[in-house]
């Protein structure tokens, strides 16, 4: 059904005179990325843990285990083949810097998806995340022909809130106890944008301020 949508394409932005001041490549994670992925995740454990999604325990349901990196890639590939979600690694001048996803993809009368992301503390504040989000929004609207994109962010996560604000996403309100984060149900601020609001493209909007 999804044809060429069965895997996320590589997306590239060369930005030498503006953030992120280098080449940002979004591509699928590979088995060869295992060592670097684990190293970055270990180095950023304290930086990321407060914002990480978790799975609540429900009596009678099997609780998921961590699994291996290979298991993780298999899960990502299965979701991509099903057309449910795409995940990209963010690589800055060849170095792994984080991940960004386009998830809960719906077609039909809704044509909606969610964007989620994380970036290594080493690369934070360099314009990498808003650039990556702009690239994914343009891909979602221009290639997948989606109509609406959401980003849901913890109110305490100022760094992520600034990404949505910099890109001019519309604040839609507070979603109480929306996602299970770091072991508890947590409120989130909801931001969204539609294809009509995006006009000629999110990247152009981001670059033009």
Structural description of this entry:
With 209 residues, the chain is α+β, with helices and mostly antiparallel strands. The protein has helices at 34-43, 45-48, 69-81, 128-142, 158-166, 195-198, 202-207, and strands at 11-15, 22-27, 86-92, 95-106, 112-119, 148-153, 170-181, 184-194. It has an eight-stranded mixed beta sheet, with helices on both faces. A hairpin with a 6-residue loop joins strand 1 (11-15) and strand 2. The longest helix is centred in the middle third of the chain and has 15 residues, at 128-142. The radius of gyration is 17 Å and the shape is globular.
Strand/helix succession? EEHHHEEEHEHEEHH
CATH-derived architecture: 3-Layer(aba) Sandwich
CATH superfamily: Gcn5-related N-acetyltransferase (GNAT)
Helices, by number, come to 7
GO molecular function, one term: acyltransferase activity
Keywords: Acyltransferase, Transferase
EC number: 2.3.-.-
Family: Belongs to the acetyltransferase family. RimJ subfamily.
Topology of this structure?
Blueprint: E1 11-15, E2 22-27, H1 34-43, H2 45-48, H3 69-81, E3 86-92, E4 95-106, E5 112-119, H4 128-142, E6 148-153, H5 158-166, E7 170-181, E8 184-194, H6 195-198, H7 202-207
Note the main attributes of this structure.
N-acetyltransferase, about 210 residues, Aminopeptidase, EC 2.3.-.-, 7 helices, alpha+beta, GNAT family N-acetyltransferase
Overview in brief:
The chain has 209 residues and is of the alpha+beta class. It is built from seven helices and eight strands; from the N terminus they run ββαααβββαβαββαα.
